[in-house]
Specification:
alpha/beta; seven-stranded mixed beta sheet; 15 strands; Spore Coat Polysaccharide Biosynthesis Protein SpsA, Chain A; 19% strand; 10 helices; three-stranded mixed beta sheet
Amino acid sequence: MRVCYLIQTHKDPNQIHRLVHTIKKSSPDALIIISHDFTNCDLKQTLFEDLTNVKILASRGGRGNFAIVQSYLDAIAWLLESNHEFDWFINLSGQDYPIQPIAEIEAFLSSTNYDAFIHYFDVFSDESPWKKRAGYTRYCYKYRTLTSPLPDWQQDLLKPAKFLNYIQPFFRVNFAYGFTLGLRTRAPFTTEFGCYGGSFLSTLSRKCVEYIDNFVRTNSTVINHYKTVEIPDESLIQTILVNSQKFNLCNDCKRYFDFSQTHNGHPRTLGVDDFPRLKHSQAHFARKFDLNKDSKVLDLIDLALL
């Protein structure tokens, strides 16, 4: 069995180097694709010259828009067009790290009856962890970015303007990813084709990956709609796979996050104090880590867990 790891990155080459070498140490045959945004940070292939099957693809990063999804889809297209053999596809960020031995993760995948490990829920249902109104705001409006991302203090000053979102249904304003203006549009969702949401990070079998690639090539209406919404990465893959009704999906992405005391969808940076919870987690990977803030937690993980 062979696993392909897609790592989407935009900074911290040393941390990327550590993650890649940790994976390859336990799984030398693994294929690793690094989809890197070179805008503000270089990443040299020579960092991985001692390893085989490590491919760097240039991409565009960004939050809240389709760029990260496009990079994901481009990596899948490259993987399939290159005729690489793989059985599972795991996407990570450069700030992720395994919290179980890679060999055990891959052994688990080799014996499971599931086709994917992916967090999902009906965005417009009463059981959605998001407020139903937030789901409609994200995925039923066509957005245009008017300014670049704003610092937190400017977002706080502009928060009163969000009152406009609650008194009329025609447009939405948001400041989390820059100043964006959304106009109500006709969405492709129906009772037969629902809108699903969840974490962008998942573990997919090859047949799920092939299905996604084929769907993207043959359903331009859905893809073009997602290119205009906010935070498409937290919905598109779920919407494609759940609506297909073809796969045995485990509603668990096997990731550890901590969103306590955070805002705008950023998980808290993990440190040594989080290690006891990581140690007892059943997740395969955790995020996010920052070598510049706390490298000791990764040392602990290497020593005690990996």
